[in-house]
Design brief:
- The protein has 68 residues and is of the alpha+beta class.
- The chain has one domain.
- 47% of the residues lie in helices and 12% in strands.
- The chain is built from three helices and two strands, in the order αβαβα.
- The chain has a two-stranded antiparallel ribbon with strand order 1-2.
- The termini are far apart.
Length: 68
């Protein structure tokens, strides 16, 4: 049973919703979301995951073109 199933809250500051995804904290910080500095994993809710996907879409597309 993982942390999300146990009911961990969103790691983004000033958010208290239930987490839906677990992503590397470095990737979340690079996308511009504010999370704690001493964490390895960032647990984010559905709304912040949508924001994360929107902010990283261009980078993922460029990376795909570069290697594909």
């Amino acid at each position: 049973m993982g942390r999300i199933e146990k009911g961990v809250k969103c790691s983004v500051s000033s958010c208290s919703r239930e987490a839906a995804r677990s992503i590397s904290a470095e990737k979340v910080k690079a996308a511009g979301l504010s999370v704690g500095s001493n964490e390895n994993r960032a647990y984010i809710c559905k709304e912040h995951y949508k924001e994360y996907k929107k902010k990283t879409k261009k980078d993922k597309t460029l990376e795909k073109w570069r290697h594909g």
